[in-house]
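Annotated sample (chain length 301).
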Amino acid sequence: KPGVPRDLRVLPGGNVAKPGDLVPRGFPMVLTKGDAAFHQGSGRRELAEKIFTDAAPLAARVMVNRVWGWHFGKPLVETTSDFGVQGEKPTHPRLLDDLASRFVAHGWSLKWLHRELVLSATYQQSGRSRPEAAAVDPDNRLLWRMNTRRMDAESIRDCLLQTAGTLDGRAGGPSSNADQVENTRRSIYSRISRGRAGNYLRLFDFPEASMHSPGRETTTTPLQQLFVMNSPFMRAQAEALVRGVPEGADEPGKVRDMIRKVLLREPDERELELAAHYLTTGTLLNYAHALLCTNELIYQP
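Output written by the structure step:
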């Protein structure tokens, strides 16, 4: 009956035609300190309370591990959705325990956790490789440098829109198709279909929406390069970037202004020389398009 909480049966082999035993609503007994059964409605509130009481040590480690992986490109425990006996061991167990205990002590504050990580000396390291360190630890498991990594699909799109000055920052409202050129809303409002991901999201490794995905696999394909070189979306952002150049500026001034906007730094002499040489035959629009295609814009650090 709709609206009435009920227990469900196990489906052996996923076969709905042959349901198995009835399973009462409850918390996993291996993590429970007392009564595991749920008694209030559907049990959602009791589930949440159990996660942050009985299972607090595990929940804190899982949350810290995922936030760490978000900032550093690689989690402390590779199997982010499996902390059991079949999962990977943490590369830095004492670090994970320390962060988890202090995370709980600070009231489970994600703001505190983000601040603690990004202000650390480890986070602020250069991404440059050192031959002597790479020889000992080629996978950077000991965190001797920052992991260079590409931003995810949504961040790349938002970064391009922000750089070109076309980003629509309005909050709320219905979702939109990320493949539409005229759609300049933040990617968090992109429409996601379980049956088929949009072309742009699929190109840049958006996971299968109908399945659980503990993380994203980063691939580099020719189709991604064709997108940034030929898509109407990229062309529209290049046109907007050129329109944002101050009127009356000379050609070197326009180049300098665009590099500042796109790469957030001053151009060096070599870059200005290359730009001047290109613009003897090329257009400012094509140069702006090329700037938006650079790895420096979409890779961290």
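Annotation: The chain has a mean pLDDT of 92.
Annotation: The longest strand covers residues 8-9.
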